[in-house]
Each structure stands twice: as C-alpha cells, then as structure tokens.
Amino acid sequence: MAICAGRTVIITGAGGGLGRAYALAFAEQGANVVVNDIRREAAEEVVAQIREAGGQAIANADDITTLATAHNIVDAALAAFGEVHVVVNNAGILRDRMFISLSEEDWDAVMRVHLKGHFCLANILGKRWRDLAKAGQPVAARIINTTSGAGLQGSVGQSNYSAAKGAIAALTLVQAAELARYGVTANALAPAARTSMTESAMPDLVKKPEDGAFDAWAPENVAPLVVWLGSDLSGDVSGQIIESQGGRLSVGDGWRTGVTRDKGAQLQPEEVGVALSQILAEAPAPQRVWGS
C-alpha cells in the first residue's frame, strides 16, 4: 500500500536533483505533490512526469524567501488539494569563497535562500497546523528540513553555507520541541548525493560510476528516507538529524554538554588552561572540518 496516499507535500527546489527525486518518490507513494522551483519550466517538467505516471502534482514558481510569496505556495496547494501535510525544505544555493573573500551579498544570499527559506513555509504551515489542532482536528504534519555535513562539521570555503546549515539543524530541534503538542514532527536530513551544487563543488567525488557498480551518490537513494519521514508512519520520530548516502543512514550526535570540570568557585585565569587541558584530553576528538 502507498504510504503517503491522500497526503499533500510541498517540496522546494524540486525542479531537479534531490528535490526532483523526492517529488517522484512521493508521487509514487500516493502523495499529491506541489513542485516548487523558481525555474518554472523545470518544475513543469517534473509535474508532467508525475502525471504521466498517474500521479497528482502542480507546478509552482513562487519565491520561498518572503512570507508574502510563500503564502502563495500554500494557497496554491490548498486550492488544488485541500490541505497540506508535509513541507520539504530542500531549495538551496552556493556562493563558495574562503571566509575573508566573502562579500556581503555572498553571505546574505545564502542566508536568505537557506535559512530564511526554511523559516517562511514552515512558519505559515505551523500556524495552520496549530489552529487545526486547537480546533480539535487530528494533525499528523511533517516538517523536513535540509542541513548538511558542512553544517554539522564545517567545510573549508563554505563558511556562509556551513553557518546556514548549522542554523537549520538548531532550528529543527526547536521546531520539534515547540510543535509536538500540535501533532507536528520536525526532522532534518544531511543528504550526500549528486546534485548541481555538489557537482560544481566536488565533481570527481560524486561522479557516476562507469562500471555499473552501485551509484552511492544517486539522489534517488535519499528519497525513501524523505518519503518515510513524510508519511504517517514516522510520527514517533522528531528532532532528529539524519545523514543519508547510498544505502547508509546515520543519526547525528549534536552539540551536548560533554566532559566537565567544576571547581565550585570562580576559576582564576591561570587555572583555566589546566582545566581545559584535562577536559580536552578526555573528550572525544571532533570530526574534521570537510576539506581540512
């Protein structure tokens, strides 16, 4: 049985790459799909493919980075399908530079698309789901965000992208805690797949194998996780950061209070180095920053 039958999902940046793979997989599992992409022609091509396979989908090219235009996306979904149950915040851009070479526009553009783009649709839908829950209607809604290994461990040459993706991981934890009472889960995935962004950043690493071997970087490999998170089956999973590549899943172990020393009184400056040396000697080594 299709695990998303009757559910409606909005997917941003769904005209290609991971978003396209998600859209096709959701439709295959019975969902109504809103294919959002600023490239309308790309969105319409995905919609055509879904409809040719017997699925239900509409294309949308509204901007995700303002509340006003994000409302248009939600309104289109409601007009076409009556309700929205899932939002997959997938759209993104890169403006890669070494930190001191970043311009203000490089910084603002990445924050706007990634971080504010994650805020707008989820904020609008979160209010809707809250109101439905308060009115006594059952809600099984899902926010699925997109972080990155760059956001979890850092990445040389991507300080703007890393900062935005790290913020998205933290945002997800807060959404999960605040919205649970309304029947809403929030999770984030850190996908490793071949997309236009990864092909521009690391083309040799993500290249499709020519020998017929398993293509671990194919975006279709991540789609089953996203579809399951968007289904009714995932209601007991929230506030998780999940990494996915090929056939591998792992749960991110985020910032937490670690090894501690407590003097019970104010530390003197000369005592700080001693205490930190002891703590760092016992603490597990962090993962290396990507590219270092």
Structural description of this entry:
The protein is 42% helix and 14% strand. The protein has 292 residues and is of the alpha/beta class. It has one domain (8-251): Rossmann fold. It has an eight-stranded mixed sheet with strand order 3-2-1-4-5-6-7-8, sandwiched between helices. Helix 1 packs across helix 8 (223-229), helix 3 (67-81) packs across helix 4 and helix 4 (104-134) packs parallel to helix 6 (159-179). It is globular. The model has no long low-confidence stretch (mean pLDDT 94).
CATH class assignment: Alpha Beta
Task: Tally the beta strands.
Answer: 8
Poorly predicted tracts of residues: none
- Gyration radius, in Å: 21 Å
Q: What is the topology, as strand order, of the major beta sheet?
A: 3-2-1-4-5-6-7-8
- SSE series: EHEHEHEHEHHEHHEEH
Classify the helix fraction into a percent range.
Answer: 40-55%
Sheet having the most strands: 8 strands, mixed
Which CATH architecture?
A: 3-Layer(aba) Sandwich
By helix and strand content, what is the structural category? alpha/beta
CATH fold assignment = Rossmann fold
Give the overall shape, derived from the CA principal axes.
Answer: globular
- The proportion of residues in beta strands is 5-15%
- Provide the number of structural domains: 1
Distance from first to last alpha carbon: 46 Å
The CATH homologous superfamily is named: NAD(P)-binding Rossmann-like Domain
Whole-number mean pLDDT = 94
Protein name: NAD(P)-dependent dehydrogenase, short-chain alcohol dehydrogenase family
Domain Ketoreductase: 7-192
Keywords: Oxidoreductase
InterPro entries: KR_dom, NAD(P)-bd_dom_sf, Peroxisomal_Beta-Oxidation, Sc_DH/Rdtase_CS, SDR_fam
